[in-house]
Amino acid sequence: MPLLLSCAKTVVGDDGSSNGEGDSDTSAEGVDSNTGDGDPPEDWCGLSEGPSEPWFQVYQGQELLGGGSDLRVECGFQGFFMLETDPQLGGFIPESEEVEFHVTLDVEGYNVGPNGHFAESDFNIYVACCEETYEYSYECYYLQTRFQLFPPDQIDDLSVIHGLPGTLSVTMQAPEGPVEQVLDVQMWAVEQNSEWEFCDY
Length: 201
Hints:
Layout: E1 10-12, E2 24-26, H1 28-33, E3 55-60, E4 63-64, E5 69-72, E6 74-75, E7 81-90, E8 98-107, E9 119-126, E10 147-149, E11 165-174, E12 177-188
Parallel strand pairs: 5-12
Antiparallel strand pairs: 1-2, 1-12, 3-4, 3-7, 6-7, 7-10, 8-9, 8-11, 11-12
């Protein structure tokens, strides 16, 4: 997958802040030129190759989010509408098997969820290497490796957000301090091929 950050500014503060006052300030242009030795160690299956400083990107399917790309509402396997995305990350050795993320989504006119956002949640993304205790134990299947945001219950018809601009804000807690990106997206909330039937009941 590409390693250019899309329409976002990534800031790592050595003092634990994300206000750009730390020693490292990496913009979208800077990440591509700083390839470093960011190959992940073998013990960290959830880390990706990339810059030698802490970084992450967010994908939906094969598409890198940002720059007004579509963020699609999906009918999840559990029977609820959701917005599922995949983080790719690397450039550091985690302090545990999980890396903490805080994710919010804002959609103008529809920020009726908790804390004034359209959606918000914390995630502990598993980045170590998982092995099943025995065949078909499904231990690894239930580990958290993706972001799953759920729309507010107050919105009965999600098609009202289709085509609206949204802001996806993602903060990763790295050992060196928080790394934050603010991604511009466009909401996609149109059913195709009756794929929403399971969630409409």
